[in-house]
Amino acid sequence: MTTPYTLLILLVIAERFAELFVARRNAAWSRSRGGLEYGAGHYPAMVALHTALLLGCLVEPWAADRPFLPLLGWPALVLVLAAQGLRWWCIGALGPRWNTRVLIVPGLPLVTRGPYRYLRHPNYLAVVVEGMALPLVHTAWVTALGFTLLNAALLSVRIRCEDDALAPTRPLPALGAAQ
User: Fold this and answer.
1) Count of CA atoms in the C-beta half-sphere (13 A) of 108
2) What does the DSSP 8-state code read for residue 95?
3) Domains and CATH numbers, the chain
4) pLDDT tens across 47-84, in order?
5) Distances (CA, A) of 25 to 21, 68, 125, 131
């Protein structure tokens, strides 16, 4: 495994700590406004899975002596960088409402700016792309496949939880409106 790839993973780990700092600050903001947490039971599994992704990215290329394949690695790196850009666009669009947990402040409308203008869950698109691409930067295909499959199962729970928590903020269709 090459030093630049290790540095990339360490930068992603530093980015995760920055996310946690923002999330902690935003959680205090939400809770001070009556924010309620939903889905706390699946949060530890999410933390464990994302930690395993980063560990797998470090261990698999070294343990399996995976080479850097430029035709795979460079496009994967571009996808990783795009995913980071999308993630921080989401964080900026949601402002103090963004969190790693599902914290909903009652009475606030859905955010419809930034990437939320185009997608309902753009942050999860960033997670999916990064989870596939980051390991593939250095040919860690077992990590990419394992994370992708487990993350699909976890996201099915997470998105359902988030949609249910946000349901009261969705506008109701007008009575008698054509469906």
Assistant:
1) 19
2) G
3) 42-168 (1.20.120.1630)
4) 999 999 999 999 999 999 999 999 999 999 999 999 99
5) 6, 38, 24, 25
Closest CA to 49 of 156, 160, 150: 150
pTM of the prediction? 0.90
DSSP 113: S
In this structure, the strands spanning 36-38 and 102-104 are antiparallel
Number of residues in the chain: 179
> Which tokens sit at 53?
């992704």
What residues are paired with 177 via a beta bridge? none
Identify the burial level of 42 via C-beta atoms within 10 angstroms of its C-beta, where 0-12 means exposed, 13-18 middle and 19 or more buried: middle
Contact predicate 62/2, CB 8 Å? no
